[in-house]
Automatic annotation (TrEMBL):
Record key words, sorted: Nucleus, Repeat, Transport
UniProt record similarity statement: Belongs to the importin beta family.
GO annotation, cellular component aspect: cytoplasm; nucleus
Broad class of where this protein is predominantly found: nucleus
Organism: Anopheles arabiensis
Protein name per UniProt: Importin-13
InterPro entries for this protein: ARM-like (IPR011989), ARM-type_fold (IPR016024), Exportin-1/Importin-b-like (IPR013598), Importin-beta_N (IPR001494), Importin_beta-like_NTR (IPR051345), Importin_rep_1 (IPR040709), Importin_rep_3 (IPR040520)
Biological processes per GO annotation: protein import into nucleus
Assembly behavior: Interacts with UBC9, RAN, RBM8A, eIF-1A and PAX6.
Gene Ontology molecular functions: small GTPase binding
Superkingdom as given in the UniProt entry: Eukaryota
Gene3D superfamilies per the UniProt record, alphabetical: Leucine-rich Repeat Variant
Record localization: Nucleus
Amino acid sequence: MDEVQTIEAAVLSFYRGGSEQQKETHKWLQQVQNSPQAWSFCWELMQLNKSSEIQFFGAITLNSKLRSDWAEVPKEAHHELKQKLLETIVLFGNGPKIVLNRLCISLGLFIVHMLRHPTVIEEVTNMFLHEQLGNLSKVTQIEILMAVLEGIPEEVKNIRTQIPRTVVCEELNRNAEFVMQTVVTYLNEKLSHSAVEPHDMNGLINAAKCTGTWVAHGNVHLNDREGMIQTLLKAIHYCYWKEPKDDGCLMPEENELAETALKSLANIISSYATQNAKYSFTVINYMKLFLDVLVPILDAEYKENNDNENLALMIYALFISTLECFSSAIFAGIVTDSEEVSKVYTRTVDMLIKCTDKPGTYPVDESCSTYAMEFWYMLQEEVLSMDSGEHKKRCLEAIKPVYAHVVKVLVRKSQLPTESSLHKWNDDDLEAFRCYRQDIGDTLLSCHDVLNDLMLDVLSEALDESIMYLSYDPQSTESWTLLEATIHAFCSIAQKIEYTEHQQIVKLLKVLNEIPYEKYSDKLFGMALETVGAYSEWIGDNPKYLPSAITLLVKGLNSTKASQATLGLKDLTSECQKEVIPYALPLLDACRTALQEGHLKNAEMIRLMYTVGNILSVISYENIILYLDAMVSPCFEELQVHVQNNDRTEPTKARVVLRLEMISKLFSSLNIRKPTEGDMDKGLVVGVGPHKLPFPAGGTPAPGAPVQPILLILEKTMGLLKSLCTLWIHDETVIDTLCKALQQALTNLMDDIKPLLTEMCCLVLSILNTNCVVSAADIAGNFILMFYKDQDCRQLMVQLFTAIMDYNFNQMELNVGKLSRIADLIETFYAFNTRISKKIPICYSEVQIDCMKLVDYATKCMMLPETGPMKKSVAFITMFVKESTNHPVMMNVILAQGENIVRSTFLCIGGTALRTQVEIFADIFLALNFRYPAEFIQWMKLLEVPNFPTAYVSATDKEQFMRKIIKERVNKRLVQDHVRKFAALCRNIVEYENK
């Protein structure tokens, strides 16, 4: 079997074999494609008697060689290659299409390589126009020509050519007008007939694509593109209106031509976006053309479930794209003396209001309305960013009625599907609608920025209308959607509502408490609960409305919408903590009942414990103890049972994690000494409840002050937590959850934790020595940072520090060569050491650990592909270097490891790290250069090694880079710039950077 037969067999094996076989075959075929022999066998594979798979492989092989290996073609063979290409195009002129398309790309690639010949594009174009290609029909030859021309600008981006890129761009610019004229002439000729022949459609589609790909070339002013724009609009008009369609749906070819023309129009407009001011008049003229030709199509498609929805989408996309590029020109029409500009602006706004109000429900009945959201943001941004003055005031007044109308439209469009319509919806539709509602919420915020207090009037009217609609048919169970949508609108703007006692909000809260929720979908109740939570801050400023809010949220605890109720209570008790005191005990009773009844989901139970902590923090100490016993004891009692039963089953694990997360959430919010802003300013921390407990900001409570409740809990349960830790020591999930609970306790207790410090440290030590989960290292780090300088605690902190270092060193030694396996652990470890280096670097001198190994591993870790470990390792090395000059032990490490650090840094810049992240390594250079200037110069001489860090960067470039870096000791931005450019040189992408 000769070579070609072997390749054919491999190709067939690839397309028809199993996945494992495909993998190996693909690898071999790639090697074959890269070989110089591919220039010969690709033609043998492209014969009509071969299978389409083999023909296609021959075509993509030719593509690959032309794109990457042009240097292998001797100059004297260029003419022969061109002839072979044209002959093969003739051979496949009538298909298969998949092969012909690849051959068209190949001819485009050939032309790009030959652009030094000034007439190559004209020669090839004339050859096709004058039907000089064998027996192919004129229609086919034109279709092929348009495909070839369309691909040329695209291929320039991906090709390796011996011609400098600047020369290539010059030649494209020089040929652009010839190509455009050819294309537009052809389009006009065909579209001038009363009917286009079906066989001409592919040529027209390729021609329309061509205008979009060549428009960036030619250095032509936008006002000189009017002929092309009119031609493309003519194509769209022809496709849509050429004849009545029984079902209203465009034929596939007509639809493709219209959509292609729209894409090209968008490309033309966006190509001039950077020259906004220069083309104001021109853009107004073009916008008028768009409105005249395209809005009648949108009007015809203004219905639910229309068959040309994608065409309508693309028309709206063209308008939005034009507005993005030339907003100031069009928005000048808000208030202007120019009737023409004013009319364009007004027609645009009217068209986009209709887009927002497209009939049907998104996304099952229509897909367009989401496109207009961006416009409403753009318009308000344009007006609000104007300099204050009479003009801005007039513009603002002019757009307010528009936004008031848009608000009502958005409320109507955001209605949820009813139960009876849900059969039309799938999961993707529901997710798309969820995102759509979020977009509506964001757009309503933009509307509020324009309307301010008027927004509440508009929504209040909508609320009246939705209640009236509800009362039209009291027996209907599906008339709730408009009311729910109106409440959603109020919820969306809650963050904008200031403390004033707005009567519209008062009315909203009254309505929310009066709705007979049991008659309607629970989604209405869920939105009411979410809205009450959203207005927590406003209620805090207007506390007389707190009782009704609490009543509604407590009612929600016993419903199917307990999730929204627990979220609302969490927000309410956080924002209104002092105000909730009069209602605290009944609220705690309600929370206890909900927790005991067992209908809450895990996340809801956990969240409710945060609320419990908030409330406990402000009641009397005696009541705190009573409610702790009633509400927290069940958690620990259940944990005790599991420990006594030595139960490590999966269901038990789930319960243990739940109980620990509930405890953790309680610890995060329960604090009888929470500071206020005023107290922090005075250096005091004062309790919030009946117990006013002044003590210095350092954290030592006044003598006789009540013990923090969390400390009481820990004192009673420390033995249980130790037993729990022993039982689950090898389970990362349980241990991690336990550590997070202890971390929450430490965060709130701070120095108050000292009575239990030894026991807690011993517990953490047992974890560090067996299963150093991330949160264990975090809490140990916090202990060390807080108590290392306390002589009474020093020995304990040294033990913790040593345990962390030993465990992590051991893990890195076990995973040498595959450190990515422990990426999370490394990230935590070096984040911890960065904090130590910054806050208490004396640790490295006083504790017997191997700092040499610590820095050596950091240089290895910063070369990992994972972003987290890389960034944390770089941050550690930077901080260690900065602090080292004050500590001899650290200084000796840097002097010994300096060259290694610089070498690893260069390797990262040269290619190990992603290009988008190389700037971070400037920090290392700056630190070394600032602290060790003389040594840094010597270490930088590593660049004198040939081909280091890559073979692409010249000795001259390296010398220049070295001089620039050594010169800068403090200007971080400049060093980052030098590093970024050097990284580009190392990776041989300078041409791309300079393009």
